[in-house]
Design goal:
4 copies of one chain form a homotetramer. By secondary structure, chain A is an alpha+beta fold. Helices cover 22% and strands 41% of the residues of chain A.
Chain lengths: 148, 148, 148, 148
């Protein structure tokens, strides 16, 4: 079902990893970049007290943050070198309580474009990451001349 | 323009503050609850390295997290006692780069309901919090018998 | 990828068709109910001058209308008898210009629920309906005691 | 609360009206362009059997169609001459049943931009159009060299 994409920059995986490493927020959460393919990125996040909402589940803010980064890097993986990225907008439905031990967010490009790239982002949690925790749609904007 | 609402629970402000204090994630970000009125809540967040994305602005995840909490507590302020709250879905447009020194998120109830409450959430940043950084719509779900 | 669902009402297909037939708006557009399975519904729509926007493509309003109905009936197909349905909210990304000769909208349940059911809705157009025209997420609300 | 905008093309109102007149879909619904100011457009729609869903209210598809057109023309009113417009994505919350005798959709620019313009769209219905029926957010894309 996932279309296969050809990256414009063969060095895409290194670029994604380097940009991810510069995101202080991802480090602060404890998020880990786990998979980078053309148009597909996964990010993992272990449960921790500092990620919780008032009932002990993951706060939606953390769930959405890793979905947003996964979707953004899925888009970036298809950009030519020398391109930056910005989330223009996102929408997410929270389907089930986000419980641990671990969340995995998967971002996937639905429609690449010169200016706008549309992505899906899905987050899985619970034992074996078998529970569909969230599903969303993201519009990513490419910025020229701003290496990400 | 903001409709005025009558809270069902006169103790609403204390309930909101107590729930906010239990959100490990808000503390971890450094977010501060600043204003609680019936159907209207504001949350502030100072810029910090641990909140940044790769270009030094606030990561969208942090911006969205405080918007989501502000919208959720705006809804909770109108619930009767003994009600919990859950974000069902949200959509947010990022309008301008989120720069410091400080973000302020304002959540406001658009349409209260027995089960679903629809809220707006707006985030302001830049000097004097004069820049409109993000605007969003949120569907909040009331859970009975689960004190928040 | 599509989960398989067991309908609560064996008569679901007849109920969906009867409700569709009462939608004056679908008839006015010329939309046709083409496929009804548990949690999955397809609606077709032939191109016509009365469906166009200013450049001759399908107006987004028509594209969204059939996506919304397909998603809503996908949800309704899983409801017990004596349930009505209401769209609570939707979000849709328009991926490609919606050209004829024909649009096909496919609604699919992502997460069924007692009160809220989350669905995807995708619209395809162009020759052989091979172009992905739109993708969206829908929150459908079940109303008890209001037969649809 | 509505920011005031200066149109780039003094002839904006004529351009909006001419584009609206080419939308076969708006005519088919019976929608009427009622107000055009810089960054603000209103469209009216009288109740009719052909606009109904299965319970006799306006079908969400019609409600959304006029909100989308109002938001799009609000954006177009600020574009320079020789610009076309496309809805990139929208999200809408349906707040109350959309009943007649008449709906009024108001589109308003939140953040103008060279490529993307973000708008709000609100729909009112019921007696005196006093009921808030829907509220949404829209991303409109400007196309150069395609007069709308």
């Amino acid at each position: 079902m996932q279309a296969s994409f050809t990256p414009k920059d063969p060095d895409y995986a290194r670029r994604v990893a380097a940009s991810f490493a510069r995101q202080g927020f991802m480090a602060h959460l404890g998020a880990v970049l786990e998979r980078v393919e053309p148009g597909l990125v996964e990010i993992g996040l272990d449960a921790a007290d500092h990620l919780s909402q008032q009932h002990g589940y993951f706060h939606a803010g953390g769930t959405i943050a890793i979905a947003d980064s996964a979707a953004g890097y899925a888009a970036l993986s298809l950009f030519p070198a020398g391109s930056g990225i910005l989330t223009s907008e996102l929408k997410i439905n929270l389907l089930n309580p986000a419980s641990g031990p671990r969340l995995v967010a998967r971002g996937a490009v639905v429609k690449p474009g010169r200016t706008l790239t549309i992505c899906r982002g899905d987050v899985y949690g619970g034992e074996g990451a078998a529970t569909h925790v969230a599903t969303g749609l993201f519009t990513m904007m490419r910025l020229e001349g701003l290496d990400d």
